[in-house]
Amino acid sequence: MEYLHDVLRAGEAARRTAVPNDPTGTGGRRAYEAHVRTLRELHIEREGWARLVHGRLELVCNADRSMAMGVMVGDAATGQASLFPKNGRRRGAATGQVTQANEGEGAAQVQTALFVAGAGPRGVSLSEEEAAALKTWFLLSYRTKVGDAVRVGCELSRPKRFVDGFVVEWGRRIPLPALTMDGIEPLNDDGPGEIDIPVDFR
Questions:
Q1: Average confidence (pLDDT) over 87-99
Q2: Partners of residue 52 on adjacent β-strands
Q3: Mean pLDDT score of the chain
Q4: Exposed end of the chain (fewer CB within 10 Å): N or C?
């Protein structure tokens, strides 16, 4: 859990590399990629975890393959213990499968061929029994701009019930302190004046 703010910082840094002429959604996509990569790198290097692809879910799992962790965008309730957060975007069947496994209902639903296909370098594949018993948590985050700073509400939570693409109940939630980052600077901003670059013509 000590690495989770580092994961969010990496995502925010990656988001800020997007410039106005990038395709729509570039910043969010880069943030997601950095979240997944940093979550994996920190847990693989420091905890001996392994890369795991569960259907289309990009996860990292512990050495005994009993617990996995991924990332998810939440809503404004994220990180607030008195409120009930939901995922900010509709998610696919793989999230439903890990939710069923979290509640011990995964045995009839697992598709182990998908796990094997996505093992990749430094990755693992799960047996049917391991996939059915896997407990999957998500680093849920919600980003808002506050003046010139960014506030990221966050929590580590385990989905319990999944309906129509959304988590409607959590088995356990661990709200984390919000992360605040200062210094948002627009890229490609050269200031109000033009820049003169002397060129010698020959």
A1: 94
A2: 59
A3: 86
A4: C
Can you tell me the distance from the alpha carbon of 68 to that of 49, in angstroms, rounded to the nearest whole number?
A: 9
The angle at the Cα of 37, spanning 24 to 67, to the nearest 5 degrees, equals 120
pLDDT 10s digits, 67-89:
999 999 999 999 999 999 999 99
Confidence bin at 120 (pLDDT 50/70/90): low
Encode 165-191: b = buried (16+ Cβ within 10 Å), e = exposed: ebbeebeebebbebbeeeeeeeeeeee
Q: What pLDDT does 194 receive?
A: 44
Contacts 24+ apart (CB under 8 A), 92-98: 92/55, 92/56, 92/165, 93/55, 94/54, 94/55, 94/56, 94/57, 95/57, 95/159, 95/162, 95/165, 95/167, 96/162, 97/54, 97/55, 98/54, 98/57, 98/68, 98/134, 98/136, 98/159
